[in-house]
Amino acid sequence: MVIHAWTESQLALIQKELAQFKLIAHYTNTVDRLVRAHIEAWKLIPDSGDKMMRPPSATGGFLSERAWNFQPRAWWFENCIQLYDAGTKARRRVDAATGRVEIGGNWGDIEGLPMDYSMNQLLQPNTWWGAHPASLAFAQTSLNQAIIACALERYRLARRKYPERLEELAPEWLSTVPHDAMSGRALNYQFDPTAGAVIRGVGMDGMDDRKSGGSDDWLWMYSTNKPAIKMNVPKKKSKK
To answer: Among the four 44, 84, 87, 189, which has the fewest Cβ within 10 Å?
Structure first.
């Protein structure tokens, strides 16, 4: 983006590919499928007669805790109910219509369940993760920023300038402008001809911190005033 090395067709293709990643929908589907898989496995344990039967791990393999195999049926069924409720609450914290993700939850919803760390974090993402790839809110915001950045560069190629507002990208370069996953509102866009473009997400605190001393905002920023790169293409040697 900085050196303007991409063509219109390349940017359009990249933008199209990025738009196919529906992280919020994938999250809710993943939660539903893993919750159901754990419940089906747990229901088999008390009646299996196999003292070596163990709960599954979300990352593959099985968990091992000898005492689990001696728990009564009611204990396992209570776990199934607790996990189902926790999965329902996790899905409700994600609003696919607005593209918003609510961070946090009550750790007590999954306390004591025989699950691995990955499954725990899927249902109860840590608020201190911040700008971490494992954070659904951060990953979705970064994806939305990349899509917008492609559209901005396509706009520049067509108009020889950048737009003043993101709304100018629709509908020719964007069908709709992607939202900030933390706020559910439009991402903030700033353009300065001398400094460049900034696409700002509000970050974990849900506030625009550009005027404060400390900031946890999630930024996509790059200089937009550098000249286009000149590609050095080797000349073909003439045949003698």
So the answer is: 44
Number of Cβ within 10 Å of residue 49's Cβ equals 6
**81-to-53, 71, 77, 110, 204 alpha-carbon distances in Å:** 20, 16, 6, 11, 31
List 218's β-bridge partners, or say none.
201
User: Measured between alpha carbons, how far is residue 231 from residues 5, 14, 228, 234 in Å?
Assistant: 9, 20, 9, 10
Enumerate domains of the chain plus CATH numbers: 8-21+136-222 (3.30.700), 23-123 (no CATH)
**Residue 123 pLDDT > 80:** yes
Q: Tokens 């109910």 belong to which residue?
A: 81
Whether the CB-CB separation of 220 and 131 falls below 8 Å is answered with no
Per the model's pLDDT, the better-predicted residue between 102 and 147 turns out to be 147
Q: What was the pLDDT predicted at 129?
A: 61
